[in-house]
Every structure is written in C-alpha cells, then in structure tokens.
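Quick start: load a record and inspect it. Here is Nucleoid-associated protein JL102_15175:
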Amino acid sequence: MFDMMKMMGKMKEVQAKIKEAQENLVHLRAVGESGAGMVKATVNGKKEVIALEIDNDLVKPEDKEVLQDLIVAAVNKAIQEMDVTAKEELKKSTEGMLPNIPGLDLSGLM
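Running the structure step on this input writes:
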C-alpha cells in the first residue's frame, strides 16, 4: 500500500540532503589556465570565480590587481545573471509537468 506520509517524509529528507550538498559546494575548488599558464582562474563549486591570476608580462604591474578584481566581478555577475535566466527557462519548460503538492518545494532543484 502506498504511504503518502512516508513519501513526504522521504522527500523532506532528500530536500535537506540536497540543500546540505549545495551549501558544501562553496568549499570545492577548480583551476583553469589559458595562454600557457599566463592566466589562471579559480572557481568554487557554486560557479563563482574566487581568484584570478594574470602574468605580469600581459599587463602593467601597477594595474594588475585592479584588472584582476574587475574581471572577477564581471565574470561573477555574468554567472549570476545566467543562473537567473536558466532557472526561468527551466521553470517555463517544466511548467505543468511537476505535481503541485502543498509543502513540497522543488525550486531548490532548479
């Protein structure tokens, strides 16, 4: 026999685990290089640029730190904008497909 209350309890448990996993993404790191290592970008698991290194041969040393900060800010803003756009598109494409169960919030999955 199908137990709706048991299923709802499991869904809440799954939601909590997903939320915890998403919060832990901030601790992951990945580094990408280009120009034979002359430019290096470090991102976390939330797709945020957290560091940018530019070789001194590419810029005037006195401008390097400001340039790095500006690039990090611009890339992160673009990623944030894309996240909003992607969620909106996903919501449009799945509209009416997911069940409307009171108390069941699946928005964190999108």
